[in-house]
Amino acid sequence: MDAIDEAIIRCVVHNARATYAEIGTAAGLSASAAKRRLDRLVALGAIRGFTALIDPQALAWHTEAFVEVFCTGNPTPAELCQALKDIPEVVEACTVSGAADAVVHMLARDIPHLERAIQRVRATAPVQRTESAIVLSRLLNRPRV
């Protein structure tokens, strides 16, 4: 990975629909050279896909929470992923160091919807208990590089 690859990645993180000409301009390349470099980054797995970021407000999912998940036993990350992947309100999940086994980012329409979703998380096999923090306001939301 060199500075040109990093410029290409920054460009597509900022706008996944950027044209090859726009990517080339950002990286100091021609459009065809930018296409070749982008294709190589995809083939290598450095870029795993392109997606649309949806504003949860547009879906009327106004309630957001971070939920610490505490498990019984010692489930693997794959087992935790399997337990959480079919809960659509779970938009992100990470294993973490510390007392909790994982932290889950959840979105819901309102508090009753969130409560039902958290109950579904608690009902999964490895989960013993949860601790929730409801988001009051989002201060920063940057694209990830």
Task: Summarize the structure in words.
The chain has 145 residues and is of the alpha+beta class. Helix content is 37%, strand content 21%. A four-stranded antiparallel β-sheet has the order 2-3-1-4, with helices on one face. β2 and β3 form a beta hairpin.
What about the largest sheet?
A: 4 strands, antiparallel
SS-derived structural category: alpha+beta
* Sheet with the most strands: spatial strand order: 2-3-1-4
Q: What oligomeric state do the depicted chains represent?
A: single chain
Order of helices and strands: HHHEHEEHE
Structure characteristics:
4-stranded antiparallel sheet, alpha+beta
What is this entry, summarized?
The protein has 145 residues and is an alpha+beta fold. The protein contains five helices and four strands, in the order H-H-H-E-H-E-E-H-E.
